[in-house]
Amino acid sequence: MNNNEIYRIQKLLYVWLSKLGKRSLDSIKTNCDSLVESHNVIASNPIWEAFWPLVFSGVAEHTGRGYYALTEPLILNYNSHFYYINNIPVSGKFREVSVGIYISDSLVNDNDIKEIAVEPKAILKKFPSVDKIVDDFSKSLQDERELKYYDKKNRKGVAELEKEGLKRFFSNPEKAYIRELPDRTIMPDAFAIAYCYGRAISGEGNGTYIGKQKKLIMPSFAIPFTLFRVLQLETMAYKNLPEKNNNNYIFNGVSAPVVKELNRILCNSIRYE
User: How far apart are CA 131 and CA 35, in angstroms?
Assistant: First the structure.
């Protein structure tokens, strides 16, 4: 899908969610497939192109047990400008910057919508590091030799096994360490968190920070949406949203203290330039 097609399908999906409330991931997938087919759009993976960006942007969220819904209406207060999430400003000039997200230079809140001041560093301080999160996953006695690793070269990190259903694990054979990943219906970010930990221990790294430009570049594959949202809050301070460039996300305007906290979470796997 090109950008215009993605926007059109996302908008229809957004309206559907707004009318029906929380939906299971299976029903969302079915609807994404139907929207793409009915609008004669070519998409390799409709749910990833249409729905998951809404979760990453903070417009939709996991409500538990594999169900998703639009997030509650919210106003992000940056003092000089304001972002309206899942609510359209009732007056003044505004523009839509993404599906469900509007920006305005004025604050109008006649409907008593929740307002928050944005403090990305404070949010990140509450995050445990990815190694500690993975260590809390269930221990497993699975024979690692049966696993199919995503990192075929190093044979460590996230792996999967197709046996009476698909299961995913985090394995580090050098330390006889293996954990079973929670199902996505329980913890949607589990795969991405474990994958980031795998990139950290393999030396691949989880991104690059260019300090002089305040630019953070991270792999687009397997980035936890919880971390993506916090980094998006940083870019919003400069009236920007994260940019997608080939296989990377680019976050502009990210401060060094925020990257320091992010690096702690990602086990010091962010490179500095």
Answer: 39
